[in-house]
Amino acid sequence: MGFHAVIGMNASLDIVFKGFLEKCSLEKQKSIFCFLPTSEQQKLQEIPSPSQLSSQKIFHDGILNFVHYSWFIPTLNTYSPSDISLFLVLFSPSQIQSLEAILKIAPASFPLSIFGQNFLKNLLISSLVGDKKTLLQLEYLPTSRCNDLLALSKTSWTRIIDYLGLYDLISSLSLIVETKLLKKIFNALTKEQKTFIQQKGTYREPFSFPLLPLETWDGEAKSLSILLHKRGLNRLAIAFSTQHKDLIWYLCHVLDIGRGTSIEKLCINKAPQTMSEHITEQILDLTQKSGELHA
């Protein structure tokens, strides 16, 4: 049985409690254990202790591949070109390609020692986390329907955000009576977007969202796309604002630093639970219909 299945919804609390027990004498540990149900005793024996969850364990090698490369650029830019070339060795081939194109620096041509790799990884990880010392590994996140969504790529999220923004457009379209404006809007949409709107033609927003300022729109497809994308980001933040703080962190960091920072700020204020759940359903519907989670 994996830790994720054993820990369940109270992962962080269980780990903290185990840490408390380990600081007690063996005699006291035994006396406390006696008052716990057998299932709880078994769970505590199987979960990792805080000592196992050091920063290097929490942020295992995979974290560097999980986080979008753009989050590392501000930190890398504080180092000399020769130092940056050493850091680049740590990344995946696709990340190296993207970072090399932006930074105009190639990775070092010689191998790094294990000690050197761990030291540099620690610097990168610390730059992401800062004082956030309790970030859980993905497998220790509290149970949530949104956990599986973290498997989606940044490209998939960008597409989902675009489609979430179309819900705002659908709500606004129902109030537009000017034929000329309607025609201009539909001309600016892609074939796929038009199909989506037609499929959701009977959709009615159960919550009050600000209408799109289409009366002042300049008529350009690009500006409409940007406007819809911003609305999609807002919906995504509403859906995740009620989730565990570490789940929000992972979502922000699978996205590029621009979108991730926006989500981070928008999630500071929690949305009503019913609104959050409603938009979560929209996200899950989009991923299921497109087969994103099964690709």
Give structural notes.
The protein has 295 residues and is mainly α. The chain is 60% helix and 0% strand. It has 17 helices and no strands. The protein has helices at residues 3-7, 11-22, 26-33, 38-46, 55-58, 62-66, 73-76, 81-88, 93-103, 114-129, 154-173, 179-187, 191-199, 221-240, 245-254, 257-266, 273-290.
The N- to C-terminal Cα distance equals 26 Å
The biggest beta sheet, please?
none
The whole-angstrom Rg is 23 Å
Q: Give start-end ranges of low-pLDDT stretches.
A: 1-11
Molecular shape: flat
The portion of residues assigned to helices is 55-70%
Q: What string, H for helix and E for strand, traces the elements in order?
A: HHHHHHHHHHHHHHHHH
Which whole number gives the mean pLDDT?
Answer: 84
Put simply, the count of helices is: 17
Question: Tags for this entry?
Answer:
mainly alpha, single chain, disordered N terminus, 295 residues
Question: What is the fold's blueprint, element by element?
Answer:
Layout (H helix, E strand, L loop, with lengths): L2 H5 L3 H12 L3 H8 L4 H9 L8 H4 L3 H5 L6 H4 L4 H8 L4 H11 L10 H16 L24 H20 L5 H9 L3 H9 L21 H20 L4 H10 L2 H10 L6 H18 L5
Quickly describe the structure.
It contains 17 helices and no strands. It has 295 residues and is mainly alpha-helical.
